[in-house]
TrEMBL record:
Pfam family, one: DUF285
Name of the protein this chain belongs to: (Lipo)protein
Biased amino acid composition, Low complexity: 30-39, 46-57
Comp. bias intervals (Polar residues): 18-29
Source organism: Seminavis robusta
Amino acid sequence: MTSTKTPSKAPTGPPSRSPTKAPTKSPTRAPTKAPTKSPSKPPTKAPSKSPTLSPTKFPTPVPTSTPTAGGFVFTRPTLLAAIAADDFSPSSPYGAIATWDVSKVSDFYALFKTKTTFNENIDTWTTSQVTDFRLTFDGTSSFNQPLSSWDTSSATSMNLMFYGSTFNEDISTWDVSKVVGMGFMFGASSFNRNIDSWDVSSVTRFDSAFELATNFNQPLGSWNVGNGNQFGYMFYQATNFNQDLSSWDVSKGARFSSTFHQSNFNQDVSGWNVAKGTTFNSMFYSSAFNQDLCAWGNGANPIALNTAPTAAMFDATPCPTNTNPDLNASPRGPFCYTC
């Protein structure tokens, strides 16, 4: 093969352009933008919204001025179990006892019975559904906390509610208008609060209401006891009680045994209508009583039952005569005084 003598084309000239500087562009600064301040905006306060009284999706600050509710709604069985566990602190499974939601519980029967060391503040509880308060604080020998905020408007029974407790707090604003039974309610040696404004017009049982309430001596003259039929032992050993009860309508009363037994009572109750009384045994036994009650045997509304027991009715009193009344005599008597 024959080779060409010279290149087929003339070689190109030297580089058509002068070489560029290295690099072609000045390098950028690192970083390309100045860093922003950290954070870019002032941080918000924690939490961003004020805490509410009930749980929300926003957490409340820790701690708060008052404990927040735990969110658990109690039934009677779960409430009894929680009380039996005897842990009422904020670290308990249900939180502090003041925050417990008992709004669905209608029965407080014997709730704290014989919890001798119990003395927690539960004034914040919602009790508007509770009908039965029987024996709630029976035997709670240490309990003395405010309960004035409790809604008792649904209550029908308060028998033995504070029996054997040391309770002595103001409950004058309670609505007891539906309560039927108050038997043994204030068998609490310390109790001495004014409850004269209570509407007790539905109560039928007043028996032993203030039995052993040795400190109690408050007015009760405004009470409407017109539906009461049980007055036995009402002020039994209420050793300080001596208030005017002359306005009471006891015309439905049947049992008056030991009503003022060993009390300090010495007020005129000669105007009481005791015509339906069936038993008067020891009614004023060993009390300070010294009043003429001849009207009970011979007045406008005398005792109707000639066989009504009157044994020891005025025994150990300052009465001029302590002889048992003879309901078959004419005139009947004596009734503390010779009739």
